[in-house]
């Protein structure tokens, strides 16, 4: 029996193939990319899958909307069936399913799967949020370059089965095919070596076809599938989901991509991101312009998580794309330069004022705390792509956080380097008032080619209490009425899929 309500908004798109015909049209298992859930609320969650019997070649489904069966249980043993029905996998969305499961109870676990005839997806576990949860467990992940390592960190996340995984970007990388083997980089007194352990499936991705196949490649990984099946995720993209260091409508290399080409590319990237993420809102497409409503707020007991979008609304970087940028840089002082955009800045200030939570988390793709690479002159040499490249916007945000926000906790990624830092009112002056704690995660698998530069500049960055650029991994956060605990989990060998994952350090936050 088809649940008609599930088809609103998609049935008009094409012919709907009912389950029996759909099964006849699908010769091999279409659930090659696993399942996922996301956008957890106190009463709802989004369930995701995508039908792709031939995942690296566009999916391999017939060009019709397909009716997919779903079931939801209240127990892992599947004895207590809560709901079942049918949902459309629209051909226009690469046969992805985004089912909003509403009417759920707060702070509860649920299990789900999808079917087409006798094909059944893996079983997924999800969980609704609750303001009253006593102990919250969150994982922070980012930067999972396929070529530079395996996903042992994701296996460890799956085992831990947190309340939610927060992924803040670089879910895929857009680059072409590397070379299997070891690459060495000579540094003073040390030879660094990095390995390419598996290869991308195409040259640099540009078209919708390319982006879909790249997501399919990444999502074919068993450990990544396990982490998705273990918990709901909230996700925000960073740069590599589109193109390295893009900003608004400006690519990193405007001499190599025209504005028109970049817009079309961004549209393809946004569309494919939606098709592969357990998110509620598709991109808004106006002609060849696409935008995503990515920033959002989620409440997990004592912690309110503000998921930021630091890519789509930012002013272009100034004074060089490399790092450190070219100092001194007079353009850095321009007050109007923005990172979040005015609307998001105002939204964030409103949410923070109304929060009432003990911990106010800002999930920022890029580091909010400063990091200088020079010896301590008047014009700090910094990474222009991070908040360091947007000092006026950062000072506005510091003003908002300093205005009575309880325990601001910044969680960030992008830099492939783990760090625990204190953000001060005057960021480069550690004697000024502390405003927030920041926990930068490392990367699931991406290299930190600048690890020596980070280590060599540590002495002039006294606000950092912990720095680890040498290991891949992720962060665990646990919050209850009394404590916030951050645990840095590190992968012993990123070049082995079954590598052990250990605790490097555990830190307890004290009130500011
Ligand atoms: Fe990255």
Structure description:
By secondary structure, the chain is an alpha+beta fold. It has 2 domains: 4-127, Purple acid phosphatase-like, N-terminal (Immunoglobulin-like, Sandwich); 136-509, 4-Layer Sandwich (Purple Acid Phosphatase, chain A, domain 2), CATH 3.60.21. The protein has 8 helices and 26 strands. The protein has helices at residues 19-25, 152-160, 208-219, 222-230, 259-276, 342-354, 391-402, 451-456; strands spanning 16-17, 35-38, 45-50, 65-73, 81-89, 96-101, 109-116, 119-120, 124-127, 136-141, 164-167, 181-187, 190-196, 233-235, 284-286, 289-291, 296-300, 303-307, 359-364, 408-412, 418-424, 434-440, 464-468, 473-479, 484-491, 501-509. The strands form 6 sheets. The protein has a 7-stranded mixed sheet with strand order 17-18-19-20-22-21-23. Strands 1, 4, 5, 7, 8 and 9 form a 6-stranded mixed sheet that branches. Strands 14-11-10-24-25-26 form a 6-stranded mixed sheet. A hairpin with a 6-residue loop joins strand 2 (35-38) and strand 3. Helix 2 packs parallel to helix 4 (222-230) and helix 3 packs parallel to helix 5 (259-276). It is globular and about 70 Å long. The model is unreliable at 1-13 (pLDDT under 50). The structure holds fe (ii) ion. Residues 143, 170, 240, 414, 416, 446 line the site of fe (ii) ion.
């Amino acid at each position: 029996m088809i649940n008609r309500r599930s088809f609103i908004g998609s049935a008009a798109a094409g012919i709907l193939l009912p389950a029996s015909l759909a099964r006849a049209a699908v010769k091999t298992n279409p659930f090659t990319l696993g399942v996922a859930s996301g956008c957890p609320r106190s009463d709802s969650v989004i369930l995701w899958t995508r039908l792709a019997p031939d995942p690296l070649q566009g999916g391999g489904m017939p060009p019709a909307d397909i009716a997919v069966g779903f079931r939801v249980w209240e127990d892992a043993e599947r004895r207590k069936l809560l709901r079942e029905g049918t949902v459309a996998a629209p051909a226009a969305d690469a046969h992805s399913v985004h089912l909003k499961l509403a009417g759920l109870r707060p702070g509860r676990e649920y299990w789900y799967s999808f079917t087409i005839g006798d094909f059944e997806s893996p079983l997924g576990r999800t969980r609704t949020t609750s303001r009253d949860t006593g102990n919250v467990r969150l994982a922070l992940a980012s930067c999972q370059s396929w070529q530079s390592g395996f996903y042992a960190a994701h296996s460890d996340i799956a085992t831990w089965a947190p309340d939610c995984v927060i992924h803040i970007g670089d879910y895929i990388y857009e680059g072409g095919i590397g070379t299997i083997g070891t690459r060495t980089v000579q540094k003073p007194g040390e030879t660094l070596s990095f390995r390419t352990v598996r290869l991308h499936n195409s040259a640099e991705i540009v078209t919708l076809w390319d982006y879909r196949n790249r997501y399919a490649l990444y999502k074919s990984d068993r450990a990544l599938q396990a982490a998705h099946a273990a918990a709901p995720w909230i996700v925000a993209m960073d740069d590599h989901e589109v193109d390295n260091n893009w900003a608004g409508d400006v690519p990193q290399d405007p001499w190599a991509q025209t504005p028109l080409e970049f817009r079309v590319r961004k549209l393809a990237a946004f569309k494919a991101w939606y098709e592969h993420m357990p998110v509620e809102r598709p991109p808004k497409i106006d002609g060849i312009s696409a935008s995503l409503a990515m920033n959002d707020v989620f409440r997990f007991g004592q912690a309110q998580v503000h998921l930021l979008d630091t890519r789509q609304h930012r002013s272009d970087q100034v004074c060089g794309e490399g790092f450190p940028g070219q100092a001194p840089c007079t353009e850095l002082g321009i007050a109007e330069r923005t990172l979040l955009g005015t609307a998001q800045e105002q939204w964030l200030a409103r949410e923070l004022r109304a929060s009432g939570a003990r911990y106010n988390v800002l999930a920022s793709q890029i580091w909010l705390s400063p990091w200088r690479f020079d010896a301590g002159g008047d014009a700090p040499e910094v990474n222009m792509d991070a908040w360091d490249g947007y000092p006026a916007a950062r000072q506005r945000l510091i003003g908002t956080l300093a205005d009575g926000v309880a325990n601001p906790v910044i969680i960030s990624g992008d830099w492939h380097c783990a760090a625990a830092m204190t953000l001060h009112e005057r960021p480069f002056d550690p004697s000024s008032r502390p405003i927030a704690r920041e926990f930068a995660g490392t990367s699931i698998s991406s290299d930190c080619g600048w690890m020596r530069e980070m280590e060599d500049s540590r002495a002039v960055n006294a606000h950092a209490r912990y720095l680890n650029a040498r290991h891949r991994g992720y962060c665990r956060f646990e919050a209850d009425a009394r404590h916030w605990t951050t645990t840095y989990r590190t992968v012993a060998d990123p070049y082995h899929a079954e590598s052990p994952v250990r605790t490097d350090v555990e830190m307890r936050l004290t009130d500011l």
